[in-house]
């Protein structure tokens, strides 16, 4: 087995909470904080921490607005985040391909 794909996995994305957020945002143009939190069954603190890490890495954009007189925060993948996520998935596919049994 070639260990190189494992060594190249993006540690920012690799944590399961951040991977779940990246996967969710990859499938949507943007999502409210509450949608991310509730869909992934995270606490406010957990979702906030992971989203902050992804934002600091440049993978997630943050938009604040007022909706019905209440503040709302939404998140979306940046082009850098979308590219990083695509690269992460390619490495996972490479790892999975290495572990498939070979045909006799």
Write the layout of secondary structure elements.
Elements: H1 4-8, H2 11-14, H3 16-26, E1 31-32, H4 33-39, H5 44-56, E2 60-67, E3 70-77, H6 79-99
Antiparallel strand pairs: 1-3, 2-3
Give, in order, the helices and strands.
Answer: HHHEHHEEH
Mean pLDDT: 94
Radius of gyration: 16 Å
The number of distinct β-strands equals 3
Strand content: 15-25%
- In terms of quaternary structure, the protein is single chain
Uncertain spans: none
Query: What is the number of helical segments per DSSP (H or I, 4+ residues)?
Result: 6
How would you sum up the global shape?
elongated
CA(first)-CA(last) distance = 18 Å
Short structural description:
The protein is of the alpha+beta class. It has helices spanning 4-8, 11-14, 16-26, 33-39, 44-56, 79-99; strands at residues 31-32, 60-67, 70-77.
């Amino acid at each position: 087995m070639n260990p190189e794909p494992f060594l190249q996995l993006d540690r920012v994305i690799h944590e399961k909470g951040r991977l779940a957020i990246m996967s969710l945002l990859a499938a949507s143009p943007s999502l409210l904080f509450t949608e991310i939190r509730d869909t992934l069954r995270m606490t406010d603190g957990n979702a906030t921490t992971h989203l902050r890490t992804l934002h600091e890495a440049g993978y997630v954009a943050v938009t604040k607005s007022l909706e019905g007189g209440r503040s709302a925060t939404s998140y979306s993948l940046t082009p850098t985040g979308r590219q990083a996520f695509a690269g992460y998935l390619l490495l996972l596919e490479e790892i999975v391909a290495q572990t498939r049994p070979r045909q006799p």
